[in-house]
Design a protein that fits this description.
Layout: H1 6-33, H2 35-39, H3 43-62, E1 64-65, E2 68-69, H4 71-78, H5 80-91, H6 111-124, H7 129-156, H8 164-179, H9 192-221, H10 225-243, H11 248-265, H12 270-275, H13 279-289, H14 291-296, H15 298-301, H16 305-314, E3 316-320, E4 325-327, E5 335-341, E6 344-347, E7 354-358, E8 363-364, H17 366-370, E9 378-381, E10 385-391, H18 392-401, H19 403-427
Antiparallel strand pairs: 1-2, 3-10, 4-9, 5-8, 5-10, 6-7, 6-9
Helix pairs in contact: 1-3, 1-6, 1-7, 3-5, 7-8, 7-9, 10-11, 13-16, 16-18
The structure holds adenosine-3',5'-cyclic-monophosphate (CMP).
């Protein structure tokens, strides 16, 4: 099995696509302007044959990446016949055996491969899919115009009064004005076939025109889909706050939260984004998304790979704003938190004493879970806090299999409890 890096694959596919494109432009022109040349097998013909034949042989190997069948391989495996027939028909230099120049048009079948390549590019490209759709559309439009112009030229015949270049340009001019349904009327169809051709071109033009208007409008509307989605959500929340007459200070805090959510995560709820993935992919994505917190928390850094995987799946990101109470003393505790960014202060139940200020990489809320008690202290966000939350059930599930981590968390909780007792005693 051949092993290709992506760069080689890309390079090769680019060569095939360029050759196909040159053939798709050149063959129809020669069919109209220089019919005789198509009857001979030229150097360019042999070159196309060579490239297309090599591509036909390489295609199955090229589509396999690092031993893992890519989507195109699966498609090709499900449907090998038609693709092979297309590759073969495009590769054979028919005019070497048959004096029938239009057979050269079979080369254009290779455009099916180019279309497939573009589809794959559209699927894989994460940035600006709308722009790519427009580029692909413009590409086909330009090629279609060229073919229409060649068709018109073959119906009209080549005028000997002007050069071949001018003949082609005039045909292209007719096509563009007719397709755009402008039709100045300076070049008009005369024979029945020409009128039918013009009718077809005008009908095509109406469709193309509609498509261009539709896609440009959707392109402009969706140039930044994440922002559009986020703005819609904020507008909905604003309408709701107006309807329920939410006090303006609270309103401002809610809007601040959305602003922060946009800045930090482009407004995405990460848990929702990964919920549709299969378990193995979800673990990988969660590990990637939570890598920052996993690296920050000293407790995790020393832990085994298996623990990190388990905990990455269970943690859920939450955001708190400055002044928010994350935990209130005396409440029932059902979750603990790890700080990814921001600072929180731990306050005594009467809020007269600051027990501690915790920063990025530290955790809190573990005492209620470990000792099965009510919340020992209140915890308040001092600035914008990016936290990761772990529920009681998740914590118990993971700690059962990792007693060494459980022991370390318990030791820290124990130490905190003793510190608090000492402080209380000092006060009395
Ligand atoms: P819990 O009692 O569940 O809720 C309040 C949390 O504050 C508590 O768990 C600890 O995680 C944290 N906490 C309490 N006392 C201290 C302290 N002295 N230093 C640091 N954190 C504390």
């Amino acid at each position: 099995m051949f092993k290709y890096t992506n760069l080689y694959q890309w390079g090769w596919r680019l060569i095939v696509a360029t050759t196909t494109l040159v053939a798709a432009v050149d063959i129809p022109v020669r069919l109209v302007l220089d019919y005789q040349s198509l009857g001979r097998v030229t150097g360019f013909d042999w070159f196309i044959t060579l490239i297309f034949a090599a591509d036909m042989l390489l295609n199955p190997a090229l589509a396999t990446r690092r031993g893992r069948p890519a989507r195109d391989v699966l498609e090709a495996q499900a449907n090998p016949g038609p693709w092979f027939a297309i590759d073969l028909a495009a590769a054979v230099p028919f005019t070497a055996f048959l004096a029938l120049p239009p057979l050269q048009l079979l080369r254009l079948l290779k455009l099916a491969r180019v279309a497939e390549m573009m589809r794959r590019w559209q699927r894989a490209e994460l940035h600006n899919p709308n722009v790519i759709r427009l580029v692909v559309f413009l590409f086909w439009l330009a090629l279609g115009l060229h073919w229409l112009a060649c068709g018109w030229l073959s119906l009209r015949g080549v005028s000997p009064d002007v050069t071949e270049g001018t003949n082609y340009l005039l045909a292209l001019y007719w096509c563009v004005t007719t397709l755009a349904t402008v039709g100045y009327g300076d070049i008009t169809p005369t024979t029945n076939v020409e009128v039918m051709y013009a009718l077809l071109t005008i009908s095509l033009g109406v469709g193309v025109f509609g498509y261009v208007i539709g896609s440009v409008a959707s392109l402009l509307a969706n140039i930044d889909p994440a922002r559009v989605r986020h703005q819609e959500m904020v507008e909905r929340v604003k309408a709701f706050m107006r309807y329920r007459q939410v006090p303006s200070a609270l309103r401002q805090r809610i809007l601040d939260y959305y602003e922060y959510l946009w800045e930090k995560r482009l407004g995405y709820d990460e848990s929702l984004a990964v919920s549709g993935l299969p378990p193995s992919l979800r673990t990988e994505v969660c590990l990637f998304l939570n890598r920052e917190i996993i690296q920050k928390v000293p407790l995790f850094r020393a832990a085994s790979e298996e623990f990190v995987r388990a905990i990455a799946l269970e943690m859920r990101p939450v955001i708190y704003m400055p002044g928010d109470y994350i935990i209130r003393a005396g409440d029932i505790g059902e979750e603990m938190y790890f700080i990814s960014q921001g600072t929180v202060e731990v306050l005594s139940a009467d809020e007269r004493k600051v027990y501690a200020v915790l920063k990025s990489g530290e955790f809190f809320g573990e005492m209620a879970l470990l000792f099965n008690q009510l919340r020992e202290a209140s915890v308040r966000a001092l600035d914008y806090c990016d936290l990761y939350l772990l529920t009681r059930a998740s914590l118990e599930r993971t700690l059962v299999r990792h007693p060494e981590i459980a022991a370390r968390i318990t030791a820290i909780a124990q130490q905190r409890r003793e510190e608090n007792v000492q402080r209380q005693e000092k006060r009395h």
